[in-house]
Amino acid sequence: MRLLLPGLLPALPPGFPAMLYPLARQLLFSLPTETSHYLSLAAISLAERTGALQVLPLVPPQPVELMGLRFPNPVGLAAGLDKNGDHIDGLAALGFGSIEIGTITPRPQPGNPKPRLFRIPEATAIINRMGFNNLGVDHLVRQVQRTRYKGVLGINIGKNFDTPVEEAASDYLACMDKVYAHASYITINISSPNTKGLRNLQSGDALAALLEPIKNRQAQLATQHGRYVPLALKIAPDLELTDVEVIAEQLRRFEIDAVIATNTTISRVGVEGLVHGSEAGGLSGAPVRASSLRVQRELVAALDGKLPVIGVGGITDGASAAEKITAGAAMVQIYTGFIYRGPALIREAAAAIAAASC
Prior knowledge:
Layout: H1 16-28, H2 33-50, E1 64-66, E2 69-71, E3 75-77, H3 88-92, E4 98-104, E5 117-120, E6 125-128, H4 137-146, E7 153-157, H5 168-179, E8 185-189, H6 204-225, E9 231-235, H7 241-253, E10 258-261, E11 282-285, H8 289-303, E12 309-312, H9 318-326, E13 331-334, H10 336-341, H11 344-357
Parallel strand pairs: 3-4, 3-13, 4-7, 7-8, 8-9, 9-10, 10-12, 12-13
Antiparallel strand pairs: 1-2, 5-6, 6-11
Helix pairs in contact: 5-6, 6-7, 7-8, 9-11
């Protein structure tokens, strides 16, 4: 068998990588969900190291500027896929405009009991109740220090499951102290449904009590490190309009740099009666598209241009990516759609956004 070296790959049809992914997905989807998750990440990292990802078509440059950062294209990877920062270089080689890793917590924790990750292919959806399983912030920092990636890197931080909600700020501050020097931006995750009480931090007084010390610490760290690292807040799709308006008010008050809308939903609309549709956890994928878009629109209106919104939730094709932009998002992030569609979705979403922006 002839060894194919990087730079000596044979000419391949333009659609060849896209043709391969459905075959790989069929194999991966035959495995237990969490097993295939880690196997996929390991395969992506191996493919990057061996040069195999060079056959992927490039995502054309389409720079976006927000939070004082320049993103090479408007399609980022959402947090959750690479919680520990173990696969940054491989994921970056797929063409994402940014990579967000985490959610990370101060101390390692195993997360919720297995099984805790469920595919619902009929709805292009996933339910997860992972519970911030991760190896701790120190491990993530070591991985970031080893990466060759020089692009936009977001680090998503949260609290340990056994830290009382009223003491949550201490966990976020502990993570900030350790990741600040290594992040392009930091995301404050208060919207996962899989850590008890976490979403309570989205309410007015609790949110103010969290954001004030975080914003103060940001100023201290900016002075200490000689660089300003922006903060983003990630919110849920299950909010009422009054909740969205209160959050927008606090975001403006504390001068948070961006907001990510949205996380997974606790609703089961769109998966009723399907296998795994009643599992506990956060639902992502196509069924969250409408509620995520509603919250995003309400947020854009309430913020009145004071800070950018990053649209996430239900992006499974170019049209669903473009609608986030036409509804006021500055850029998008993908996760579940990427699981179902593969790297082709990155290019398709970028092209649709380009067309919608003309």
